[in-house]
Design brief:
The complex is a heterotrimer of chains A (345), B (99) and C (216). Chain A is mainly α and 345 residues long. Chain A has 10 helices and 2 strands, in the order αααββααααααα. Chain A has one domain. Chain A has a two-stranded antiparallel sheet with strand order 1-2. Chain A is globular. The relative contact order of chain A is 0.14. Chain B has 99 residues and is an all-alpha fold. Chain B has a single domain, classed as Orthogonal Bundle (Helix Hairpins). Chain C folds into 2 domains: 159 residues, Up-down Bundle (Four Helix Bundle (Hemerythrin (Met), subunit A)), CATH 1.20.120.1200; 44 residues. In chain C, 71% of the residues lie in helices and 0% in strands. The N and C termini of chain C lie far apart (66 Å). The chains are: A mainly alpha (345), B mainly alpha (99), C mainly alpha (216). Chains in contact: A-C, B-C. At the B-C interface, helix 1, helix 2 and helix 3 of B face helix 3, helix 4, helix 5, helix 6 and helix 7 of C.
Amino acid sequence: MDPQDLQVVIEATVKVAIVLGVIMTVVAYMEWVERRVSAWIQDRRGPNRVGPFGLLQPLADGIKFLFKEDILPPHVHRTLYLLAPAIIFTTSLTTFAVIPFGPPIEILGRLVKLQVADVDSGILIILAIASLGVYGIALAGWSSNNKYSLLGGLRSSAQLISYELAMGFAVVGILMSAGSLRLSEVVEYQVRHGWNIFWQLPGFIVFMTAAFAETNRLPFDLPEAETELVAGYHTEYSGFRFLLFLMAEYANMITASGLAVTLFLGGYHVPGLHLLDLPPLAFALVQVGAFCFKVALFLFLYVWVRWTIPRFRYDQLMNLGWKVLLPIALANILWVAFFVLQGWA
Amino acid sequence: MRIDFFLVMAALLFTVGCVGVLIRRNVIVILMSIELMLNAVNLTFVAFAHEMRSMAGHVFALFVITVAACEAAVGLAIVLALFRRRRTTDSDDVSLMRW
Amino acid sequence: MRLLMGLVFVVMAAAALRALLPRRPGLTAFAAAVAAIVLVGFYPGDLATFDFWAGAVGFVSILSALLIVMHPNPMVSVLFLILNLFCMALFFLMLQAQTLAALQVIVYAGAIMVLFVFVIMLLNLKAEEGMRVGMGPQRWAAIGFGAAFAALMFWALRHRHGSAFVEPKAFVEGFGTARDLGTLLFSDYLFATEAASVLLLAAMVGAVLLAKRRLE
């Protein structure tokens, strides 16, 4: 293998390792954040026994899940039962590959893009992989061979595909203004013209609502709520497989937050940072830090909304997705189209 | 790049789809075999588009996908309606109008 | 030589499908897929591009196609169809149709197949115990037709004009991008695009009406 190819392979491997490592760590600590923030909202203390401020709680939980007995219920369809958590976990991790978390920087003479894969059709790839994630849930519901899982799986899949549509339409507005499907160019557009949230606010609201629904988080978590349908599509799962579902949910949250930040909040851009004359590496690192901070803000928003708003009923949920969000998203497209045609964007 | 490989692949997939439509009795599997045939045709379109360097092949493939979506939706709605009436998805059982 | 290859394909396909009985569909499909790929590899013609990755993806696509048709459980058939669609998307990427590959995954593998999964879940279709194939003569007629059809297509491919050495055209910048596809859709093929949208509307209305419980 010639040195050029080797460099590319090493660069890609390092990026994948870093992104994967960071996502998995954040997934584990999201659980801690969720429990502490929910405790704060509910005026009580969260976990504070295991380690200082309960920081080792995710470790304890992980160990608990790992040591549980690996039960394979006899009435399930074995292949699909084992396949479902794998599908949903894989798709939730893969989507983060196209999100840029920093500007291109020069390392050892190479221009390294801080993005695992800068493909020509970045936004399409995200929509594609998100639509594949529906199968994990549908198969989990089906393979469990019991009424509650089936209904939960059906409801959850229907919710996912309905809100996928609204999310796609919200993204079309971004597409039109940036003129490209590449996420790095969307960020470049926002660096030049200001963040998209300011002039595409309806699109942002639609996107955030759809993102909440896509990740099965409250107020859209009917399929997995404890008071409904036992536990929906993951009733029959226990131990490590159940942990995979939970981790997939948190990974989806991280990706959705990352996407919202990239599309609407300017990605890694810090307004006015170029006024301070920083050396390029520090410049890039501050921007990466800004990206992480914005994603953290959105994750906090996710947790905050979960413990504040009551849950939607299924018919209200479907009504919202088709009859409310879709028209708002279409109106947003018209609005953005008007701006783009006038040349103001 | 020579496209004969893709054309042969499409031909084989089309044949498998054809045989599937003829052999299977379950209506849903018949619909799936039809989708397989449509995909083989898409592959042929895209292969020729690559050879001729014309995007017309891609446009037609997109229309084929659109038509496949419509046909799958309506076909599955028919299957649902059929199932409600007859409690079966076996195409041999739906023979009321046969002589 | 060609004729011999064609005959070998027919015999192997027939043998594979002869064992279409409920036992071990996976093994039969595997054997048939290996036969198909070996034959494609030895295809007497201008298959200069039979490189390893194209062959691997082709093998997986033929294997999954055979298993769609042969497996008794419809849900597993759907999964194999999704795998096949994914292989198609990979073929499209090899042929520089990036947008179409992404659209294939989003629309076909991500939405249409979800529809199939929904219907199977709603109807609660389990694995079929009964024989999937029709009556005896019908089955052999189908296999014979399939073999004849494959032979016909191979013959047609053999004699197409493109097999003569055509100068490969220069690589067009932006071939296969969304921009080019969109431009064509809204300029040369505008009428077809509008007609397709009307078709989608009709299909939506039709599907909703057909699947309603009671027309009230």
